[in-house]
Amino acid sequence: MQIDIITAFPKMVSAPLRESIVGRAISKNLVCINTHDLRDWTEDKHRTIDDAPYGGGAGMVYKIEPLYKCLTEIFENSESENREIILTSPRGEIFDQDKAIKLSLIDHLIIICGHYKGIDKRIKSFFPIREMSIGDFILSGGEIPAVVMIDAMVRLLPGVLSDIDSAMTDSFSDYLLDCDYYTRPEEFKGITVPKVLLSGDHKKIEDWRLEQRENITQKQRPDLYKKYEKK
Q: Mean pLDDT over residues 78-100, rounded?
């Protein structure tokens, strides 16, 4: 999988993506992540990437020229037709586990880190851009959402996790939140591990965990539980 990130603040994405699971995936050549500083595609001495919106109003807008040049160069160097462009934006569709799974199957993913009031809409006349959000709140920019989405996708790539079954039972994988877990010691300050987990009966343990997941989801995320009931 190849991921190209377009941003005005490359250090915000490059550092966290070198750590933990994503960093190991890069070192194993399971994913290639390129970070592009949008200012490298400007021609004026101030490296300007934004300007005031036509019609007035507060805020600034990404200029079309540097974005067009950057995307064009990325497309020219791409070897895959199975690609998608994502713009991180508070008005985009909500990113969730289903989308993480589907996007992890894309060969070439391009993420534009949104900033300011947005981008000049005319760029969508040249490139198919899909807007996506990680939640109903506002951040200072789209770099953190980009890192969040990449982390969620990369961990699903074949060979990244040593125990893929663990990922498949994570919260949201089937519209259920995960259950509670316990580890040694068996007893701590009078509180003991549920007996079923010590029984050695894998069927009983599996049933208990499913019941726990259903109860936790129904209590904490009734919206998810409705989806679970309908599937």
A: 95
